[in-house]
Amino acid sequence: MFAMRRALLRDIATTVLGGLPMTLTAREPNPAPATDACLCAGEVLGHYGFPDGHPLGADRQSAFLKEAELQGLLARVAACAPRPATNAEIGRFHTQRHIERVMHAERDKLKFLDNGDTPVFPGIFEASANVVGAALDGLARVMRGESARSFQPIGGLHHAGRNHSAGFCVFNDLGVVIETLRQRYGIRRIAYVDIDVHHGDGIFYAYETDPDLIFTDIHEDGRYLYPGTGSEEETGKDAAKGSKLNIPLKPGSGDREFLEAWPRVEQHLVRFEPEFIVFQCGADGLQGDPLAHLKYSAATHAHAAKRLVDIAGRFSKGRLKAFGGGGYDQNNLAKAWSAVLREFVAQKTSILKT
Ligand SMILES: [Zn+2]
After folding, report:
1. How many angstroms is it from 326 CA to the middle of ligand 1?
2. CA of 62 to the centre of ligand 1 (A)
3. Longest CA–CA separation in the chain, Å
4. Residue 324 Cα, ligand 1 centroid: separation in angstroms?
5. How many CB atoms neighbour CB 70 within 10 A?
6. How remote is the CA of residue 224 from the centroid of ligand 1, in Å?
7. Rounded distance from Cα 53 to ligand 1 centre (Å)
8. Which of 134, 146, 194, 339 allows an S-S link to 280, with CB 3.0 to 4.6 Å?
9. In terms of pTM, does the model score above 0.85?
């Protein structure tokens, strides 16, 4: 087990971080494995990105890993390597029609998968399937009780719907995780917490009538930003009315406005006592992001992560799975995601095996 972990960390170090002066390989074999948190990363995930100066470039994972290494975090996580998800796994959330369109996008010489937001890039199917596969293996680790929490920087693709890509998101790994929790692990009441600057419309509308998907989302007001949805009035439909909480913030809002809104998220989660928490911690709400207009610092992400660790410990047997989501300034995403991972490794959890 230790050897496998070292090998995986070495893989991250050599294939993703390239020529950085690394301490990962020099550190073996002394420290006890810190299995409270695992990190789902690897070279193929770094390939998920769009060419030609697109804001979601292919080098975001390495920017995060460099910062996480500088902060000494990589030595404190179990490593979880990616692998491609099967069509059947992706099909737990997506239609086969959508999967096949992505699979054949290069052969069919498509330029975009949707209305122009999500360009086709070389290896798009493989990279996208690996985002989902990594998410499922990270989930399996958590469900086996090997780690209480997992973090996957390249993932959290919350705009993709069951039958379409959208907003840089090819396959919705979050949706596949939710469906897998239900179909494979028998977990029904799942909380979804989204602090990405954009509304998580791909999850919201897929579960709008589902009373057991407990949805909370703080984002920039849709009147000013893509995708234009997520008003306070959108609380779920039919039997699900009241199970969804959308909190739009005005452009220019920062840590103060986030912290004022956050207790509503906690009250919502406590009210429904989720059995598992999925956390989309997009870094595009930080000040200076080129696509949005909020002014968070990484303290926002640290606060949300710390509180969710606590709430997961109270209601969800500690089970918390986080994804990096958006973030188009590399310094910002490195700081925000490292703040989340730091909270994940800082707290010890007694993991209850199921
Ligand atoms: Zn976003």
Report:
1. 4
2. 19
3. 57
4. 10
5. 12
6. 13
7. 17
8. 194
9. yes
Ligand 1 ion: nearby residues, β-carbon < 5 Å: 196, 198, 282, 284, 326
Q: What spacing in Å lies between the alpha carbon of 283 and ligand 1's midpoint?
A: 7
**How many angstroms is it from 124 CA to the middle of ligand 1?**
20
Phi, then psi, of 259 in degrees rounded to 5: -65, -30
CA 245 to chain centre: 19
Residue pLDDT, tens place only, 200-244? 999 999 999 999 999 999 999 999 999 999 999 999 999 999 999
pLDDT in tens, 268-281: 999 999 999 999 99
**Collapsed DSSP state (helix, strand, coil) of residue 349:** coil
Distance of CA 135 from the midpoint of ligand 1 (Å): 19
Other Cβ atoms less than 10 A from the Cβ of 32: the count is: 6
DSSP H helical ranges for the chain = 2-11, 24-27, 43-46, 60-70, 87-90, 96-103, 124-143, 173-183, 201-206, 255-272, 298-315, 330-346
Select the more confidently predicted residue: 35 or 119.
119
> CA–CA separation, 354 vs 144, rounded Å?
7
Question: Ligand 1 centre from 316 Cα, in Å?
Answer: 26
Rounded Cα distance between 231 and 222, Å, is 7
Sign of CA dihedral 273, 138, 27, 31: positive
